[in-house]
Give the backbone structure.
Amino acid sequence: MLMIACGAIAKELVALKELNGWHNLQIECLPADLHNAPAQIVRAVRERLTQVWDRYDLVFVAYADCGTAGALDQVLAEFKVERLPGAHCYEFFASKSEFDALCQEELGSYFLTDFLVRHFDRLVWRGLGLDRHPELLTSYFGNYRRLVYLAQSVNPTLLGMAQQHARQLGLEFHLRYTGLTPLCNAMPQPVILHAT
């Protein structure tokens, strides 16, 4: 089985593969920065599916919709391939019910994962131009009230970084440890059924 995956969840997928002994699973990651232009996710997934389609008994795509507005699902339907559930990684990292509850608690929640905590400066601070134009902070984050760190790992360094990011954005900090279980539960049955 081949899993075409988002590079932003590579570390977690490799950890699940090792923990569960999914020896039949090959993981290929596309660059995480494709998220900056969701149409590129669709193009990259289509290209990779076209290249590998006849070489594997089963292919799975480890992306949520990720801002493609259904375009990714149209490509996957052509190839009869499934993907991870939800609109974005926050849903499958936290589980849909937990994510919905967090949003009900506070609609103005800005979410980070382990990956986004590590790469916050590049993807968020510099990526949005806040290093050059700090006056844009209220335009981007003025409607948010809290930063929710959905932690996949227990890591004091990442926790400290996430708290610093919340201060940088002027948001209340909220920690929710998700671990890897919700992501594991979102994986396709063939992975689990063929685990040795």
